[in-house]
Design brief:
Helix 12 runs antiparallel to helix 13 (355-366) and helix 12 (335-348) packs antiparallel against helix 15 (407-419). The chain is α/β, with parallel strands linked by helices. The strands form four sheets. A ten-stranded mixed sheet has the order 5-6-4-3-7-1-8-15-2-16, with helices on both faces. The chain folds into two domains: 25-315 and 427-463, Alkaline Phosphatase, subunit A (3-Layer(aba) Sandwich), CATH 3.40.720.10; 324-420, no CATH class. It is built from 16 helices and 16 strands.
Length: 467
C-alpha cells in the first residue's frame, strides 16, 4: 500500500514539476535553424568575404554569429565518425543517434524515434517545417518521418501527410528513388486537408483561408535557385520564414518552426566557394527574420542556429599567409548556372562551341581576362579542357552527389577558388565540429561540451515539450 501511495505522489510531483518547468521557461516561440553542411569555416569564410568585399582584412559578423551564446557540437553518427544528413538530422530532431541513411529510427531501422516537432504537435503547438531543398529530403524528414532509408521519398512524404503538421515548405516534393508507387503525394496532401501553394505569391494569398499548408516553388527543381543566381519572383528562405511566422501565429498559442538552408550543402559538395558564401548570407537573412520577431517577443522566444555537419572540408588558405576572397565578387553565377550556360552553347552549335564563345561565358560570369588575370599555365589548363570537351566530342560530366557539371565549368570555378586561396578536402562530408548560435530565453543552457543530440533536448527543456 505504501508503495502505491509513493508511486502516486511521485507521479503527481513529476507532473507538477513538468508544468512548473514549462511556466518557468516561458518560451512560446521556437525557431530552429539548420544550415546543412555549414561548418565553422563556411561561416568564418562568409564573414571574411564580407570584410574583403568592403576593402578590409577582418570579419563582419552575421546576424547569427552575433548571438550572445556561441558554441560547437560534435556530429558523428551511431556507426560512422562522418555522418550523413539523415543520421545528423535524426540526432538534431530526436536527440538520439542512428546509423547513416536512416531517418527518425534506430540503427536497425525498426524502432521509431520521437522528434521534438512531434512533441510540440502533440502539445497542440503549431508546427512548421521549411527547407530550401525538397520538403521530403533527409534533414526535414527527420522531424516528421520514420523510415529505414532516406531515399524512400514517397514513404517519407506519406509520413508528412500522416503527421499532420500545420505547414510544410520546400523547393518541391521529391519522387522516390527506391521502389515506385502510383499514388501522387500532392493528391494525398490535398485529401488530408492541405492547401497547396505554388510560389511565394500563392503562399501569401492562400495562407489566410488555409487550415494546413504545403508550399513549394513553381518550378519543379530540387532546390530554391541559389542566391547568387536569383531572379525576381524566386522564393527565398527569408520570405517563406516570414510567411510561416504569420501563418503559424494565427494557428494558436506559440509555434515551433524549423528552417533548413539545404542548398548550402549542395554548393559545398561541388566546392563552389562563392556560391556557398552567398547561400550562408541568404540563410542568415532568414535568421534575421527570427531576430526581428524576437525583438518584439524577447521573453517568449528562443532561436537556435546550428548545422547537421560540415561539407567539403573547406580551408581558408592554401599555403601563403593570405586570402583573396574579394576575387570571388567576380563570380556572378553558381557552378550549376555556369554549366547550364555551357550546355546551352553546346546544344546551339551541335557540340562544336568555339573558344571565343567559351571565353565570353567565362568573362561575363567569372571576370576572367578582364578583372581576373590568368597565368600562362591557367590559360593552358582551360584551353586543354576546352579541346577535350567542345570540339564535337562526347564529354563525360563531372558527377557529385546532387549535380552533374561541365568539366570546363568545374575547372574554371576551381581556378577562381585557387586565386581566392580557398582549398577543399573533398566533395563529401567531414567530421569537423559545427557551430551553434543561441539567443533568447534559456540560451545560457547551450554552453559547455555539446553533442548534436543535446540540442533538441535543451530546446525541449526550455520549451517544456517533454522530449
Amino acid at each position: 500500500m505504501c508503495g502505491k501511495w509513493y508511486f502516486l505522489m511521485a507521479l503527481c510531483l513529476g507532473i507538477l514539476l513538468s508544468a512548473c518547468k514549462h511556466d518557468a521557461g516561458g518560451v512560446k516561440y521556437v525557431f530552429y535553424f539548420i544550415g546543412d553542411g555549414m561548418g565553422v569555416n563556411q561561416v568564418t569564410g562568409t564573414e571574411m568575404f564580407l570584410a574583403e568585399r568592403d576593402g578590409r582584412i577582418g570579419a563582419d559578423s552575421l546576424c547569427c554569429s552575433s548571438f550572445p551564446v556561441r558554441n560547437y557540437i560534435s556530429t558523428y553518427s551511431a556507426q560512422n565518425a562522418v555522418t550523413c544528413s539523415s543520421a545528423a538530422g535524426t540526432a538534431l530532431a530526436c536527440g538520439l543517434k542512428t546509423k547513416n541513411g536512416v531517418v527518425g529510427m534506430d540503427r536497425q531501422g525498426e524502432l521509431p524515434f520521437v522528434s521534438i516537432a512531434e512533441k510540440a504537435h502533440e502539445a497542440g503547438i503549431p508546427v512548421g517545417i521549411i527547407t530550401s531543398v525538397g520538403m521530403n529530403h533527409a534533414t526535414p524528414a527527420a522531424f516528421y518521418a520514420h523510415q529505414p532509408s532516406r531515399n524512400m521519398y514517397f514513404e517519407i512524404g506519406r509520413d508528412a501527410v500522416n503527421r499532420g503538421f500545420d505547414l510544410y515548405c520546400g523547393a518541391t516534393v521529391l519522387h522516390s528513388r527506391v521502389g515506385r508507387d502510383s499514388a501522387d503525394l500532392y493528391t494525398l496532401f490535398e485529401r488530408a486537408g492541405y492547401t497547396i501553394a505554388r510560389g511565394l505569391e500563392a503562399f501569401l494569398q492562400k495562407s489566410n483561408g488555409a487550415s494546413k499548408l504545403l508550399v513549394v516553388q513553381e518550378k519543379n527543381e530540387e532546390n530554391f535557385p541559389y542566391a547568387i543566381d536569383r531572379q525576381a519572383g524566386d522564393m527565398t528562405l527569408a520570405d517563406v520564414t516570414r510567411g510561416a511566422v504569420d501563418f503559424l501565429q494565427r494557428r494558436g498559442e506559440g509555434f515551433f518552426l524549423m528552417v533548413e538552408g539545404g542548398a548550402i550543402d549542395f554548393a559545398c559538395h561541388v566546392n563552389d566557394g562563392a556560391t556557398v558564401f552567398h547561400e550562408i548570407l541568404d540563410f542568415d537573412a532568414a535568421v534575421q527574420v527570427a531576430f526581428d520577431f524576437y525583438r518584439q517577443h524577447p521573453d517568449e522566444t528562443l532561436i537556435v542556429v546550428t548545422a547537421d555537419h560540415e561539407t567539403g572540408g573547406i580551408v581558408l588558405g592554401d599555403g601563403p599567409y593570405k586570402l583573396n576572397l574579394k576575387v570571388l565578387t567576380n563570380q556572378k553565377v553558381s557552378l550549376a548556372e555556369l554549366t547550364r550556360k555551357m550546355k546551352q552553347a553546346r546544344q546551339e552549335t551541335g557540340n562544336k562551341v568555339s573558344w571565343e564563345v567559351i571565353q565570353t561565358i567565362l568573362k561575363e560570369n567569372l571576370g576572367f581576362w578582364e578583372n581576373v588575370a590568368l597565368s600562362e599555365e591557367e590559360n593552358e589548363m582551360l584551353e586543354d579542357c576546352y579541346e577535350r570537351s567542345f570540339t564535337g566530342k562526347n564529354v563525360k560530366l563531372v558527377e557529385s552527389l546532387y549535380a552533374e557539371d561541365e568539366p570546363l565549368a568545374v575547372l574554371a570555378v576551381k581556378l577562381l577558388n585557387r586565386k581566392a586561396h580557398l582549398s577543399w578536402a573533398s566533395g563529401g562530408h567531414s567530421a569537423g565540429a559545427v557551430p551553434v548560435y543561441v539567443l533568447g530565453k534559456g540560451a545560457e543552457l547551450f554552453t559547455g561540451h555539446l553533442d548534436n543530440t543535446d540540442i533538441p533536448k535543451l530546446i525541449s527543456r526550455v520549451a517544456g515539450y517533454g522530449l
